[in-house]
Amino acid sequence: MPERNEAFMKQIKLGLIGAGERGANCYAPYALKFPSEVKFVCVAEPLADRRNTFGKTHRIADEDRYEDWKDMIGKGYELDGVIIATQDRQHYEPAMAAIQAGLNVLLEKPMAETAEKTKAIVEAAKEKGVLLMVCHVLRHTPFFQSVKETLDSGVIGEVKSIHHIENIGYWHFAHSYVRGNWRNTEETTPMIVAKCSHDTDIFNFLLGGKKCERISSFGSLSYFTRANMPEHATKNCMEGCPHNKTCLYSAYNYLDDREMRQNFRDIVMRTDDREAFLTHLKESPYSRCVYQCDNDAADHQVVSMVYEDGVTVSWQASAFTMDIKRQTKIMGTKGELEGSIDEDQYVVRDFATGNETTIKIHTPRTLHSGGDECIMRNFTQALLNPDKESRRFGAELSLQGHVMAFAAEYSRKHDGEVVVL
Ligand SMILES: NC(=O)c1ccc[n+]([C@@H]2O[C@H](COP(=O)([O-])OP(=O)(O)OC[C@H]3O[C@@H](n4cnc5c(N)ncnc54)[C@H](O)[C@@H]3O)[C@@H](O)[C@H]2O)c1
Question: EC number(s) on record (predicted)?
Answer without folding.
Answer: 1.-.-.-
